[in-house]
Write a structure and sequence with these properties.
With 165 residues, the chain is mostly helical. It has 7 helices and no strands. Helix 2 packs antiparallel against helix 4.
Length: 165
């Protein structure tokens, strides 16, 4: 029998298989650690900081527009962006989600959650660049690549979403 690090005191009573399995699992989890606490590779860290900076810039730009009417990137000319900015409640919600995701990535606090929050926004941005702003396709490719790298890095954090109940 292999040593698992689990010790069971003799109490005169029997221990169920479920309790034993839970104890073994807790020891395995303690020894292996979680996905977010494990050391990321250099390209995963670079992708995390890059996406954090991109989305932080977007959040700050959106906040400056909402609060003071200031455009950091210039006044939008595309109808899609103008329509989004005119829907103030949605624009504020979008920029707050970007801020939460960016802070999560930049400060490495629950980065898997930050990536999960930013996936829909990054997807829409990439499609927007592909169909309406073809000059930004390389930027969209960089965002999509960084998102793919981070989704792959945090895949163990998302595994429980697909478990059967």
């Amino acid at each position: 029998m292999q040593k698992t690090g689990v010790s069971i005191a003799e109490t005169g009573g029997a221990i169920s298989a479920e309790d034993l399995e839970k104890k073994v699992q807790s020891v395995v989890t303690e020894k292996q650690g979680t996905t977010t606490r494990s050391r990321l590779k250099w390209y995963e860290t670079t992708a995390r900081y890059l996406l954090g900076a991109i989305f932080m810039f977007g959040a700050v730009d959106g906040a400056l527009y909402l609060l003071f009417g200031i455009y950091l990137h210039g006044k939008p000319r595309e109808a899609f962006l103008i329509a989004l900015e005119q829907a103030k409640y949605f624009w504020a919600f979008l920029k707050s989600i970007q801020l939460v995701g960016a802070v999560s990535l930049l400060f490495n606090y629950k980065p898997a959650l930050g990536v999960a929050l930013l996936i829909p926004i990054a997807s829409v941005m990439c499609l927007f660049y592909l169909f309406d702003l073809p000059g930004f396709i390389p930027f969209g490719f960089i965002m999509a690549s960084a998102m793919f790298v981070l989704c792959r890095a945090y895949y163990k954090s998302y595994a429980h979403i697909f478990d059967n109940y």
